[in-house]
Amino acid sequence: MLEVRILGGIEVLRDGFSLALGPDQRRAVLGVLALEVNRPVALQKIMQVLWEGNSPEAAKGSIQAHISRLRSTLFAAGKGKEAIETVPGGYRLALETSRVDLFRFDELVARARRAGDREAKSLYGEALRLWRGRPLATARYAETLSYSLQEKCLLAYEDYVETRLRLGENTQLVPELTAMAHEHLHRPRLTGALMKALQNSGRTAEALHHYDVVRRSLVEQVGLEPAAELRRLQAAVLRDEESYQETHR
Fold first, then answer.
1. How many CA atoms are closer than 13 Å to the CA of 63, on its beta-carbon side?
2. What is the per-residue pLDDT across 220-235, written as a single tens digit (0 to 9) for each?
3. Which residue among 34, 105, 163, 223 is least packed, with the fewest CB closer than 10 Å?
């Protein structure tokens, strides 16, 4: 059974064994095809990813050579209907969508968003474990595509965190959420989630400190104040802190 992984370095497994794909550019070709599995991918799109509009004269021949080597590496055994097909104006990776990790991720996240919190937590966790690092990690290729996939992962992670907060897992969340929120300072959902987790864990001062860090970064780097929702959350945390201090005087 063939499995294509693009949520990290581009990899292919057959029956659990990793296949040698060759240079980064060849991996990038496979990554673009896998993103559109079972759909035609225009030759021009592959060229755009590999050369960003500055394709050399030999670009078409280079891609044809990469396709030929990929066919030899991936489908030499000729099992089933798996193939890289030549279609008008381009190529198509013929493969069950469940064999591409991105599409398994999408299915799990879609199911999680329809489920109750306890089931959703499990489904989100399973989906996020498919991510092994920067998607389509092929050195200098496919940066724009990689960014859009990273955004998809972060949105799912934010949903996952909010699900766990609703389940009361505040203290358990704080260590990993602290790391993620500091790595992505300008994502208001992560900031808000960390503030809530800290506040609900009895660490109100740390929640307010993180808000201050985010606000200072936003003002200095982009000249903006935090989102209104975060300002309201900060005000609520401040009220709780003042109330706590009043009752312990």
1. 26
2. 999 999 999 999 999 9
3. 223
